[in-house]
Amino acid sequence: MAVTADRITREFSPNSPSTPNHREMVIDSTRKAEYWLAKQLDKAGITLNGSNPWDPQIHNRQVFHRVLSEGSIGIGESYMDGWWDCEQVDELMTRAMTAQLDETLTGRWTFIKHWLAARLMNRQSIKRAFQVGEQHYDAGNDLYTAMLDPTMAYSCGYWQEANSLHEAQQAKLNLVCQKLQLKQDDSVLEIGCGWGSFAELAATRYGAKITGLTISKEQKRLADERCNHLPVDILLQDYRHHDGLYDKLVSIGMFEHVGQKNYDTYMRSAHRLMKDEGIFVLHTIGKDKSDLGTDPWIDKYIFRNGAIPSLRQISAACEPYFVVEDVHNFGQDYDRTLMAWHDNFERAWPMLSTAYDNRFYRMWSYYLKCCAGSFRSRSLQLYQVVLRKRLTPMDRYKSPR
Q: Active site at which residues (predicted)?
């Protein structure tokens, strides 16, 4: 039966008929927690055990305690444990975020803990930098090969004229090359090279010479294989340890791992590594407002030590070093990209299930759909920012679309 706040109020109001367990039921903590959650979800048009595809179906009523006490982590972990299901988790999250329920359901202590950690600690220090590579990007090349398109690009595709994931990823990579004004024999440093998608295309199609940095052993192994016999050098190295001077710089989907305490170091490093007449294209997820910390469940299970910047934070970090020549937001395209990845993941699961358990399946599906909902609600954006060195006279820059 669908559970709404109104129904619970009527059922347990002081004027309802007395029953032997009436008083105990009124003070029952599980029912109180259920009432509170139902009341919050009502604001977003979501009904516990309702008939809509975005309505959560509850299998274990202890989930209400977990949500109240643990917030985001309790919601995600209880889904991983099979305590609740939802046909369209992506739409559930879209509606919840549009109604700003994510701020209510975060879990106060969990949020404060992550906020304090972001403010007091450098969670993206050199010592901790490789943790996300070991946890997330080294999860298994079989997983990513099955989920991604043939380019192996693990970032937002550009769907303006694309009809498939592969077309969208090729369009994104070509768009970056065009914004870089890439030409034959340009030396390019890619900060966070993934599995070599940009390096392979830029070297093959544009004749550029690429140096790629990654903190993932599995990414390096596959990128080396993909870029064999091309003018591409893949290094297992933190950007803060790299030296050199390049015509162009690019960073696609890596700035989310830098962290607020390192934004200045990152921009100073990019400025040091690029020639005066160079161009830097920064492709990053962005938040719709500035704050510290990240979603606790995402931090624990998906992107360790991550931090999504706002446009204001990006601009402030650039200010001492670069002129912002162009900002291009196509965040809606990430919703479509994530759902395409989820479709690939679902199709590949019979093969992947021999190497990954059902809890991993639920975790990964939840991750992809939650992120899709975040972009669909416009809580998250996707920025491509074109940067050139300040106080360096150059011709007018015209950014392609």
A: 371
What distance in Å separates the CA atoms of residue 329 and residue 385, rounded to the nearest whole number? 9
Q: Between these two residues, 371 and 9, which has the higher pLDDT value?
A: 371
Q: Please give the Cα distance from 316 to 266 (Å, whole number).
A: 12
Instruction: Quick: pLDDT tens for 28-54.
Output: 788 888 999 999 999 999 999 999 999
- Write the DSSP assignment of 256-312 as a string of letters: GGT-GGGHHHHHHHHHHHEEEEEEEEEEEEEESS--SS--HHHHHHTSTT--PPBHH
Using CB atoms within 10 Å of the CB of residue 213, give its burial: 0 to 12 exposed, 13 to 18 middle, 19+ buried: buried
What is d(CA 353, CA 338) in angstroms, rounded to the nearest whole number? Answer: 20
Tokens 């009527």 belong to 10
3-state helix, strand, coil in the chain (%, to 5): 50, 15, 35
- In the structure encoding, which two tokens stand for residue 182, read together? 């890439």
370 catalytically annotated: no
Is 149:322 a contact under the CB 8 Å cutoff?
no
E strand intervals along 72-223: 84-85, 187-191, 209-214
Please state the rounded mean pLDDT for residues 369-377: 97
**Which residues sit opposite 83 in a β-bridge?**
none
Query: CA 220 → CA 17, 131, 215, 226, distances in Å?
Result: 68, 15, 8, 10
In DSSP notation, 94-110 reads: HHHHHTTHHHHSS-HHH
Q: Are strands 57-58 and 84-85 parallel, antiparallel or unpaired?
A: antiparallel
Give residue 177's identity as a one-letter amino acid code.
C
pLDDT band at 292 (very low <50, low <70, confident <90, very high): confident
For the chain, the farthest-separated pair of C-alpha atoms sits apart, in whole angstroms, at 83
**What was the pLDDT predicted at 188?**
98
Question: Does residue 207 contact residue 182 with C-beta atoms inside 8 Å?
Answer: no
CA separation, residue 161 to residues 165, 328, 398 (Å): 11, 16, 20
Confidence of residue 110 (pLDDT cuts 50, 70, 90): very low
Instruction: Using DSSP, state whether 357 is helix, strand or coil.
Output: coil
pLDDT surpasses 70 at 121: no
